[in-house]
Amino acid sequence: MSAPDSAGPGGPAWPVTTWQRWPHFATTPPPQPPAPGEPERGTKERLAYHSAFVTVRTPAIDTLTTNVRTLMIL
Questions:
Q1: What pTM was estimated for this model as a whole?
Q2: What is the mean pLDDT of residues 6-27?
Q3: How far is CA 2 from the centre of its chain?
Q4: Geometric angle at alpha carbon 57, from 70 and 43, rounded to 5°
């Protein structure tokens, strides 16, 4: 299997679902929201933040996670 022709800043343009791209995805920390008082982010930075699937941990999300894991085990 050969590498794709285009390469981005994170390495080759492998999809996240391939073995070659997974380690990069799994070890990259999720982007953090801007701290209060920081200047507004540009469109590209906003899209990168929202496309990283950052989930805010709330009691409802914790309950949902527990229920899904229980159902998957069953």
A1: 0.37
A2: 67
A3: 25
A4: 125
